[in-house]
Automatic annotation (TrEMBL):
Subunit: Homodimer.
HAMAP family from the UniProt entry: His_tRNA_synth
Family as reported in the entry's similarity comment: Belongs to the class-II aminoacyl-tRNA synthetase family.
Example GO molecular function: histidine-tRNA ligase activity
UniProt KW Transferase keyword: no
GO cellular component: cytoplasm
EC number(s) recorded for this UniProt protein: 6.1.1.21
UniProt-recorded name of the protein: Histidine--tRNA ligase
Major subcellular location class: cytoplasm
Organism of this sequence: Devosia marina
NCBIfam families in alphabetical order: hisS
Length: 472
């Protein structure tokens, strides 16, 4: 083979994945259940494009000749930089600001779609993945935040995860008050302190204490540098983690108001609980923050039992829309990681959908009679039945049936010359055939029995197939 005719190796780019019919069906069924909960709460769908002007994304303003740090970017005909969306929230903020005069306020919407990260891929870390968000823009009170938490809990229940999750809630204002009381001033030190708090579930209070101080060495000997707080400073943070909130704090009052709403609506601490260790989006969120944690155990790559962890979260982000408008615009919302949630449902047996049923396949036993076979297919389709005529090149009966098997077809329709003369058809029930095959070991017996195959009149094609599918 010359260099000119050299074949291209089929390769999937790193950080991306293909999706099969079974996976698409399973995720589609999951998304339908989530949508039903969102709409029950009065949220409506909105769809924004994959591309936004790069400056719209906010976190990644074009400060280089090519703004590609974290995002995938290109220039349009006007030499303006556009980027694939990094999340679904920044496009919502742009949409709301652009349509401010016509939208109802508060504006309640949900969005589902792919987002893109120009980052190094790794295990469970993709450059393209799906998110499913819900947001309320224009409602300043803790009632809107509490509603988000209750809706997250209802979504988990609808997906069959009751008793296997908890929605954990905290408030950025409380965290800021603790940091101020502890005398933590620099942004870098704040970040390190809050990361330490975030490790409470993983390392316990002693581990957090080390991370607040000089640092912590793990079992492998790897050292994580700490925040460098004094014992006195660390004690303030540890008191908070232990359940002692700062006094006279606006965030504490907001959490108390949310808790009253949870209690009134019947959401106990087994479903939604105030948790001081919740840390999210340090620069992004301005008030309540929350996340859905799945509480069942799974094995990590080292074979250790660990809690599955977060599948989504969010909080109040009152500053985002203000990038587009002078007046303050309050907003709160949350995002579900669709792929991660689907994996959780798979592990718990709640994903539901298996390989979707394929079409009924009309076999082509005689090329000269193609029009007859096409008429059968049309009759089935007009009756609302998935159907296709075999379009492959082989005339071999066994290979055509094998094709139908690979399509997960429920049945094949057979009309040879003898059947045509008699005005009949053979219907081969592939589901019954597979079940019968498990009990037959002798090939001759198999051929004689022709399990799952039966004869019908040509004019009874539609009714016979409908009956078969209902029985299956």
């Amino acid at each position: 083979m010359t260099e000119k005719t050299k074949l291209i190796t089929p390769r999937l780019p790193r950080g991306f994945e293909d999706r099969t019919p079974g996976e698409i069906a399973a995720v589609g069924a999951m998304i339908d259940k989530i949508k039903a909960v969102y709409e029950r709460y009065g949220f409506d769908p909105v769809e924004t494009p994959l591309f936004e002007y790069t400056e719209t994304l906010g976190k990644f303003l074009p400060d280089t000749d090519r703004p590609n740090a974290g995002v995938f970017s290109l220039q349009d005909d006007d030499e303006q930089w556009m980027s694939l969306r990094y999340d679904l929230t920044a496009p919502l903020a742009r949409f709301f600001a652009e349509n401010f005069e016509t939208l109802p306020k508060p504006y309640r919407s949900y969005r589902q779609g792919y987002v893109f990260r120009n980052e190094k891929p790794g295990p469970g870390r993709f450059r393209q993945f799906m998110q499913f968000d819900a947001d309320t823009v224009g409602a300043p009170g803790p009632e809107a935040d509490a509603e988000m938490c209750m809706m997250m809990a209802d979504v988990m229940d609808a997906l069959g995860l009751a008793g296997k999750y908890v929605v954990r809630v905290n408030n950025r204002k409380v965290l800021d008050g603790v940091l101020e009381a502890a005398g933590v001033a620099s942004d870098e030190q704040k970040l390190t302190v809050l990361r330490a708090v975030d490790k409470l579930d993983k390392f316990g209070s002693e581990g957090v204490k080390l991370l607040l101080g000089a640092g912590r060495k793990d079992e492998s000997g790897d050292f994580t540098k700490g925040a460098g707080l004094s014992d006195t400073q660390a004690a303030v943070v540890l008191d908070y983690v232990g359940g002692k909130p700062p006094a006279d704090n606006e965030g504490v009052a907001e959490l108390a108001a949310m808790q009253a709403l949870f209690d009134a609506a019947g959401y106990g601490p087994d479903r939604i609980k105030i948790d001081p260790s919740v840390v999210r989006g340090l620069e992004y969120y301005t008030g309540p923050v929350f996340e859905i944690e799945l509480t069942f155990k799974v094995q990590n790559e080292k074979g250790q039992d660990v809690v599955f962890g977060s599948v989504g979260g969010g909080g109040r982000y009152d500053g985002l829309v203000s990038r587009f408008r002078r007046e303050p615009v309050p907003a709160t919302g949350f995002s579900i990681g669709v792929s991660r949630l689907a994996n959780a449902l798979k592990l718990t047996g709640n994903l539901g959908a298996t390989e979707p049923a394929g079409p009924v396949v009309v076999l082509v036993m005689d090329k000269a009679e193609t029009a007859r076979y096409q008429a059968m297919v049309s009759e089935l389709r007009q009756a609302g039945i998935r159907a296709e005529m075999f379009l492959g090149q082989t005339k071999n009966f066994g290979k055509q049936v094998a094709y139908a098997d690979k399509r997960n077809s429920p049945a094949v329709i057979i009309e040879g010359s003898q059947e045509r003369e008699q005005g009949i058809l053979q219907v081969k029930d592939l589901i019954a055939g597979k079940q019968a095959a498990q009990a037959i070991t002798d090939n001759a017996e198999w051929k004689a029995a022709r399990p799952g195959q039966f004869e019908i009149k040509r004019e009874d094609l539609v009714s016979a197939v409908q009956k078969l599918l209902s029985e299956q």
